[in-house]
Amino acid sequence: MEQEKIEIIEVGPRDGFQNVSQFIPTNIKLAIIDRLVKSGLNNIQITSFVHPKAIPQMKDAKEVTQFCLEKYPNINLFALVPNLFGAKAAVEYGLTEITYVISVSETHNRKNVKRTHDESFEELSEILRLFPTVKVNLDVATTFGCPYEGMYSIKTVMEFLERAYKTGVRSFNLCDTVGLADPILVKKVIKNVLTRFSDCEIQVHIHDTRNMGMVNSLAAIECGINKVQTAIGGLGGCPFAPGASGNTSTEDFAYMLNKMGYETGVDSDLIINTAKFLRENVDGNYSGHQIFINKNKVSTQ
Ligand code: ZN
Fold first, then answer.
1. Domain around 243
2. In this structure, is residue 1 part of a structural domain?
3. Does 251 score more than 90 pLDDT?
4. Quick check: is 200 catalytic?
5. Which of 68, 175, 223, 238 is catalytic?
């Protein structure tokens, strides 16, 4: 039987790094991205084109983008853009894929990007209109619940996606921004979304707030999702969402999928080595495990 392919999309260099308070030198960022590529990851969110005053960690977005585009022509590289200004910069520096973000919860959206739903959807439409050849993903923040508005009905999520669909966007990333999902909820949402939006690309981005990143991501895979976002070391969080912790760790998730027989393309030991290099160079909150498959390389760090 042919192995089922699951694409692990690495968001550590953006979602992970932006939650590290001390500036990570650009050469260290590039060294980590290089190790991610060598570990077998083919799809990497490398940075965010956000105002450097808002998130100083991303002030080297242009350098990181230019370097990576030149060095990895065969890797799918993309960036987060919080607004039209960021989208213009990302495209100007050569990216052909960008991610825009709107929260299902309008309260969270106002706190995160300082916009109403109307303003965000208008801006998304403008980005799609201005860059018809650029792939635009929509991060659907707080899909599985909001720290301010609580849990909402499937209807609320579906109406939000209908509105987004009308703008022309066809790639949705369902984000458990603060870790409120559980496997039953994930399955319920995904089944509805896959049925209604069968012509769209659907990804998930699950936070590991209560050690549920793995089970929730796996629940999504069991419903037919084959693109899952994770972050090396389990770095990440959401600076605007109280209580948010890191993302699902790439090394643990890759290990689990490889062990289960899924084809990820990610080498379980190389990705742990990458996480080890990250820990040695960047001070952050880590959750991934440092247990190698190859016994000669066993580390208990
Ligand atoms: Zn995240």
1. 7-300
2. no
3. yes
4. no
5. 238
